[in-house]
Design brief:
This protein has 343 residues and is of the alpha/beta class. It has twelve helices and 17 strands. Helix 1 crosses helix 6. 50% of the residues are buried. The structure holds threonylcarbamoyladenylate (TXA) and magnesium ion. Magnesium ion binds next to loops.
Length: 343
């Protein structure tokens, strides 16, 4: 364990994490997707601290992390067959199921909704923490509201610093984008947020098409326009001439421009900051948030990113890039105050 400046405690001590959760503390912990900011899901005071620390609106529900599928019955009622099937196939893993809440689930956790989001993470540190703690852990991603999710313990320290009681270090997250959120409660299972389990795999498991559900009231930060955003403005473009033209325009305007792409660089003008991404989609997903953070560290004003094909993990990557890009364009009035205090 080491204590950094402003009393940031980064540690590998899972027992200490469990102890702090029992005492109503906030413990950031690694999952296979991104780091979570955890509290005892049954302790309203602890859960309310999550909202304060993140700067998150109170009506945005949290995911409840449980140890195993059999615990679904404590948290949800009327669990449909499709949900059991998905849980059996993909848990532990990057899938969140939205189910009708058990009456005992705290309103604070569900944001007052009649449903609750549940998942069993597969990261060994997350599972060990759940096991030692013995209860369920309510946890959003461990970033300030609207910002890029952390995929390393050091990113959590950057985001939340001394505001958490402990940051459990489990190395870099393997998947790098958040869980896929699925609502299996209607006859037509729908994805509310694309993520670590590709749509094609859900369709294969359910033997039915699965649709992306968009729009509706913004209750879920994953659906919020100002999300996943670095400080730099993000522009999404296709590779080739369009990318080059955009970069040249920006350079002429005097901007410090970073290009984030797996595509070849030869055709790009001098003077751009290069943030290469791997071309395989799982590796691209793993590097995505780290690369957006790197753009900020390099002092880029603008990140020009190319969008992968929307298949497999490409759907989640494209979704995050597009949400990051909406900050500072159409949603400028909402986004700018949020960006200033990085809420
Ligand atoms: O991979 C992940 O899902 C990570 C790790 C830490 O588990 N967690 C995460 O949490 O991304 P968060 O809070 O940043 O995003 C969770 C999303 C939010 O968009 C939230 O609104 C949605 O899940 N959600 C939770 N409960 C819901 C519900 N009952 N109905 C609809 N959406 C819900
Ligand atoms: Mg989040």
């Amino acid at each position: 364990m080491h204590t950094g400046p402003s009393s940031i405690v980064i540690s590998r001590d899972v027992s200490r994490g469990a102890e702090l959760l029992r005492a109503g503390g906030l413990v950031a912990f690694p999952t296979e997707t991104v780091y979570g900011l955890g509290a005892d899901a049954a302790n309203p005071v602890a859960v309310s601290r999550i909202f304060t620390v993140k700067g998150r609106p109170a009506d945005h529900p949290l995911i409840v992390h449980i140890r195993r599928m059999e615990e679904l019955a404590f948290w949800a009622v009327d669990v449909p067959d499709a949900a059991w099937l998905l849980a059996q196939r993909f848990w532990p893993g990057p899938l969140t199921l939205i189910l009708r809440r058990h009456p005992a689930v705290l309103d604070l956790v569900t944001g007052g909704l009649e449903t609750v989001g549940l998942r069993v993470p597969s990261h060994p540190v997350a599972l060990a923490l759940l096991e030692r703690f013995g209860g369920a852990i309510a946890a959003p991603s461990a970033n300030r509201f609207g910002r890029v999710s952390p995929t390393e313990a050091a990113h959590v320290a950057e985001e939340l610093g001394g505001l958490v009681d402990l940051i459990l270090d489990g190395g870099r997250c393997d998947i790098g984008v958040e869980s896929t959120i699925v609502d299996p409660t209607t006859g037509e299972p729908a994805i509310l947020r694309p993520g670590g389990i590709p749509k094609e795999m859900l369709e294969d498991a359910l033997s039915t098409p699965v649709y992306l559900r968009r729009g509706g009231p913004v209750r879920c930060p994953g659906q919020h326009p100002m999300h996943y955003a670095p400080r730099a403005r993000v522009l999404v473009t296709s590779p080739g001439p369009e990318l080059r033209a955009k970069v040249e325009d920006l350079l002429v305007g005097g901007a410090r421009v970073a290009v984030m792409s797996p595509d070849p660089w030869e055709a790009l003008p001098h003077g751009v900051l290069r943030i290469p991404l791997p071309s395989s989609l799982p590796e691209m997903a793993r590097e995505l948030y780290r690369s957006l953070r790197l753009a900020d560290r390099l002092g880029a004003d603008v990140v020009v990113a190319t969008c992968p094909p929307r298949s497999g993990l490409g759907l989640a990557i494209a979704d995050r890039l597009e949400r990051a890009a909406r900050v500072g364009s159409a949603d400028a009035e909402i986004a700018h105050p949020g960006k200033e205090n990085s809420a």
